[in-house]
Amino acid sequence: MKQRNWVVVPGVLLAACLQVGIAQAQSSVAVYGRIDLGVRHGPMDLSKSEDSVSYMDDSSRGRIGFAGKEDLGNGNSAFFQLEHRFNGTDGNVDGPVYWKDKAWVGLANKSIGQVRLGRMSSPQDWKGVNGRFEAFGGDSYASNGSRGARSAAKWDHTVYYETPSLGGFSLGLAAAAPAKDIKAARGFHLDYAGGPLTLATTYQTEQDPLSGASSSDGIKTLTFGGSYDLGFIKPLFTWARTDDLGASDSGRQTVVTLGARIPAGPGEVRVSYRRLKDDMANGSSRAADREGARLGLGYHYPLSKRTSVNLSLVRDQLKAFEADGTLKYKRAGTGYEVALRHNF
């Protein structure tokens, strides 16, 4: 699909909003955030050592954000969101991008849908394997963090259009402009939410993350996610596979997670299992391949609507391979954490 076709619907949406004219606009801006710190004991990095140490860390990354909406009348609205990520343990910025998680502005129409422009989650991170399908919401030490295989979680220079919900179904189309040495990215999501059932699938193509890959070298990622709330238990799953890794386009990575949330007492028991498998991830041999298994068990204890104590117990295993596929090392470790989280 040529890039100009991706902007037809957003253009229609913009035209609909421009026809509103001058109206008595109502607007709101909210400030929100989180700090979530834990005392932890366990291996810091199994790729380097099995040795366990005690230390303080972010149980989930600190954040502060701003979100606003303006009513333009006749079912139209404008909105924006900015979200910064930081390390709560020392106050430093989490990575080189200041507005790491979100920096977008958008227009919405109740009949046509909405369009956002800026830096935002790619389809897999926005709808495919996001926290709603992981027992810990993607947060806390016991969570199974990265679930999108080798695809990028965030896209810059992006236009993302989403339809309104129709019978529980919604569709999204996203396109990110090319940058220096980075190819354009394209993707979509299809989402369903009805009663206790939520399902999603996404597909995206983008720049190969392998170091030194040319701007013409792309990868493809397909994901599925789902949950079903039975009341006494809520099972969840994600599945993601990235293909065409490496210059030969023969590499692959697959990530699967299974989990459940179980109401218990004043809080919730959470359990999550992740399996990661590389297959010639560098495109030429098994030298960069990893296989991992991670089991997380935890308890979420709310002290109020905004503050909670979160307990984590983790068992992690990691295998690495030589170029010919023979085992390079196999390491395992157990860790635990007690964390205090405050949302505002």
From TrEMBL:
Gene3D superfamilies for this protein:
Porin
Q: Where in the cell is it found?
A: Cell outer membrane
The annotated subunit structure for this chain is: Homotrimer.
Extract the signal peptide range. Answer: 1-25
- Alphabetically list the UniProt keywords: Cell outer membrane, Ion transport, Membrane, Porin, Signal, Transmembrane, Transmembrane beta strand, Transport
- Quote the PANTHER family the UniProt record gives: MAJOR OUTER MEMBRANE PROTEIN P.IA, PROTEIN YDDL-RELATED
Extract the coiled-coil ranges from the record. none
Key word Ion transport present = yes
Q: Where is the Porin domain?
A: 20-316
This protein's record includes keyword Acetylation? no
Task: List the membrane topology term(s).
Answer: Multi-pass membrane protein
- What's the protein name? Porin
Tell me which domain of life the UniProt entry assigns to the organism this sequence originates from: Bacteria
- InterPro entries per record: Gram-neg_bact_OMP, Gram_neg_porin_domain, Porin_dom_sf, Porin_Neis
